[in-house]
Amino acid sequence: MGVKGRTRSVLVSVGTFINEVVSFIIFSVLDLLDFTLCFVFKVLDFFMEAEWKPCYCNSAKEAIKSSGKILFSEQGESKIVCLSSSNNKLHLEDISDTLYTRSSLVSEISRSTVKELKKLKVEGTMIRSHTRVKNGTTRSTFTVNSTIVEMLQGKIGKQQSHPIPRWSDCDCETCNSWSYSCKDSLYVKVGGSKGNACEDVLFIHGFISSSAFWTETVFPNFSDNAKSKYRLIAIDLLGFGRSPKPTDSLYTLREHIEMIERVLDQYKVKSFHVVAHSLGSILALAMAVRHPGAIKSLTLLAPPYFPVPKGEQATQYVMRRVAPRRVWPIISFGASLACWYEHISRTACLLVSRNHRLWDFLIKFVTRNR
């Protein structure tokens, strides 16, 4: 057993080493490829739509200049927040710092090259300072420099209107039905009871999914008794399925919750049960916090939960856990491609999603419509 144990340990170490080396090589190539595709898509966007489009691989500072939203980071906390206008109100909300901060070979080289230059420019976009007041409490004060003042002037409420669909999007009726029918509300599929005495159940799907996750698999298997007692409300979240996909949205927690609340108002839902899966579990918990007296029960399926070690930056730590930039196991490789490489993912969508009608036809033809 001792010899077998040592042999197995050696094989595991060799396998891990090979995986590390091969992963470094492949992801270094992918870093360069994604960097190249960034330039290619910018050129294509300019020629197709006469405008340079911002992307998330750029710095937040560049995004400030090229969008109607205002982004700034708090020094020392590596947190990006968004100041946006909605219903003539300003909202201050958290944006994951992985949105604009995803390390790669190219970005690491770039950062090390300009590191010394950045030291000379210590004035941050916004500096947070804590001052003690006489009664011993702490208050936060913000010093805004002239750059932010200039960005604020005329920026709020003047967001660019992007064409819908864009040249790289599918232009079929199914994918764009929201653009001329339901721009301000989510797509909703209602099943079960239609009576006034029934209870309401809200179903929230997860990532890369839609209301069909429930309506085509779960709803048909409910008993007649359940269907007579409950009204089943399944939604397509903002940006998913047949719901709106606004180009100026960052798909924040607040935006998702507000769109769900519109559905509840539309169907006059006062109290309800919630059944949620994966990403939907996060939204369900937010709904429970926001409407504690309205929610009768909360059922969470496969909620994403990652314990973060003390001292670690939570979002970056989870990003490395979910997408560890390794070629093996294969699921890690796929997750890494989707999470770290914006432009490679856009290329895949251009080839697959934009041409889904062709792929649907070919699959039906090969499988004889099975």
Automatic annotation (TrEMBL):
Keywords, alphabetical: Hydrolase
Domain (AB hydrolase-1) ranges: 201-306
Protein name as it appears in the record: Alpha/beta hydrolase-1
Protein origin, superkingdom: Eukaryota
Pfam family, one: Abhydrolase_1
GO molecular function: hydrolase activity
Signal peptide start and end residues: none
Record-linked PANTHER family: HYDROLASE, LYSOPHOSPHOLIPASE BODYGUARD 3-RELATED
UniProt xrefs under InterPro entries: AB_hydrolase_1, AB_hydrolase_fold
Source organism of the structure: Thalictrum thalictroides
